[in-house]
Amino acid sequence: MIADPSGYQFTAIIAIILGAVTPAFAKPLSQPDHEARLGACIVQASGGRTWLERTLWGLRDQEAGWIGAEIANTNGTHDLGPLQINSFWVPRLSVLVGRSPANVWHWLVTDPCFNVQAARWIFLSGLAVTRDYWDAIGVYHSPAASRQHRYRNGVAGHLIARFGRDVFSHSLQAGYGSEGRDRVVQTVQVSAQPLKGGKQ
Questions:
Q1: Sign of dihedral through CA atoms 155, 131, 171, 195?
Q2: Which DSSP symbol is given to 170?
Q3: For residue 78, is pLDDT > 60?
Q4: Cβ distance 108 to 85 under 8 Å?
Q5: Averaged pLDDT for residues 149-168
Q6: Nearest-CA neighbor of 44 among 101, 111, 130, 89?
């Protein structure tokens, strides 16, 4: 851990560790650049698990955010970055990564890989609790059951649009029946470790 997280040394070390830092004053990326960068983050966050990579793409397509997005909600929260992480999560994520809420907010908005890792953590945490793939998709959106059904349908539609109807044949459904549920939950418990890829 870095003892003095202030000044140029901290920024230089983070740039070396992460490979690149997007300055706050950077121009918005063009659409192809944005998607390529986001795609690399999704592949990294999925850790080689096709079902998780596809899930993250489904969530991303449903949320339709972008690098730099800060969308105000009527309840006073904000949806941040490409996967529209609700600012409700900022204090919890702040504790997980050991950084200030202001830093976490900034990274969720400007760092696509941190944003995707946060989305991964939120989804996998929901999956560990609900033990049901589609319930976890709904919980990613809202804890209110009344708001989950439409969202799940939207994500399913985006998964079909991106990957075809066969998306559900193996990678998303495999292991989610009663006989494979424990195996999936064990995988989720290993996968739902604290965030990686953020500016720590």
A1: positive
A2: T
A3: yes
A4: yes
A5: 89
A6: 111
List, as one string, the DSSP characters of 52-120: HHHHHHHHHHHH---TT-EEEPTTS-EEETTTTEEGGGHHHHHHHHTS-HHHHHHHHHH-HHHHHHHHH
Q: Are 21 and 109 in contact (CB under 8 A)?
A: no
Encoded tokens for 145? 């059951």
* Angle between the N-to-C axes of helices 90-97 and 101-110, in degrees from 0 to 180, rounded to the nearest 10: 100
Q: Residue 74 in contact with residue 159, Cβ under 8 Å?
A: no
Q: Over the stretch 108-154, which tens digit does the pLDDT of each residue have?
A: 999 999 999 999 999 999 999 999 999 999 999 988 888 888 999 99
Distance CA 57, CA 36 (A): 12
Question: 75 CB contacts (<8 Å, ≥6 apart)?
Answer: none
| pLDDT higher at 76 or 32 | 76
Q: How far is Cα 23 from Cα 93, in angstroms, rounded to an integer? A: 21
Residue 178, SS3?
coil
Residue partners of 44: CB distance under 8 A and separation at least 6: 113, 116, 197
Note the pTM of the prediction, 2 decimals.
Answer: 0.71
